[in-house]
């Protein structure tokens, strides 16, 4: 049996999915794991779907997570959770940010944002819902919801030997280190 763990982070362009993945990857490498990461951008950097696949363990040969293989999926937006659920393994967990970003067809009035996503997913898989946007706003910057979600993920992963503070400081824009550290801690305490 493989010791490799598979994580997907999925969201919409502009939510900081790739930044969270880079911080996670750096922390896992520092903790002594071999890590492979792959990122996919949708049709546009802002508003298109974005996913990152992270695999870590003693020996990892590929960065690709296949359908039914993810141990954890972190969805930065509810519709993305619905789009990626088939990648979750039967005993996996899905962490969902209770947040909506309407797609272009929704903004144009051609379709409505799907209702009941959280309820539908809860009937199929193990779901943890986080209101990361509210938490990020409460600490002073709504753009840190990605780091709130990262903190919650890291806590659930229970990885020893990583300096998460260093990984955050190394990857966020200068001048935003402290607010991102607060966001990470808020997510970690969930």
Automatic annotation (TrEMBL):
GO MF, one annotated term: oxidoreductase activity, acting on the aldehyde or oxo group of donors
Highest taxon in the source lineage: Bacteria
Gene3D superfamilies assigned: Pyruvate-ferredoxin oxidoreductase, PFOR, domain III (3.40.920.10)
Pfam families linked: POR
InterPro entries registered for this protein in UniProt: IorB_Oxidoreductase, Pyrv/ketoisovalerate_OxRed_cat, Pyrv_flavodox_OxRed_cen
Keywords on record: Oxidoreductase
Stretches assigned to the Pyruvate/ketoisovalerate oxidoreductase catalytic domain: 13-189
Coiled coil: none
Protein name, entry field: Indolepyruvate oxidoreductase subunit beta
């Amino acid at each position: 049996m493989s010791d490799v763990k598979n994580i997907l982070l999925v969201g919409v362009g502009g939510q900081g999915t790739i930044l969270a993945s880079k911080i996670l990857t750096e922390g896992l490498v520092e903790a002594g794991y071999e890590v492979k990461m792959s990122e996919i951008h949708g049709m546009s950097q802002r508003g298109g779907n974005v996913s990152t696949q992270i695999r870590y363990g003693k020996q990892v040969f590929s960065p690709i997570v296949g359908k039914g293989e993810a141990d954890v999926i972190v969805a930065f937006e509810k519709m993305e959770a619905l789009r990626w659920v088939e990648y979750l393994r039967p005993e996996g967990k899905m962490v969902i940010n209770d947040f909506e970003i309407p797609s272009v067809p929704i903004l144009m009035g051609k379709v409505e944002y799907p209702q009941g996503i959280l309820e539908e997913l809860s009937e199929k898989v193990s779901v943890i819902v986080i209101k990361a946007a509210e938490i990020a706003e409460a600490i002073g910057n709504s753009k840190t919801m990605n780091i709130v979600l990262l903190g919650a993920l890291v806590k659930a992963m229970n990885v020893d030997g990583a300096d998460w503070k260093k990984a955050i400081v190394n990857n966020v824009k200068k001048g935003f280190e402290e607010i991102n550290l607060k966001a990470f801690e808020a997510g970690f305490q969930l």
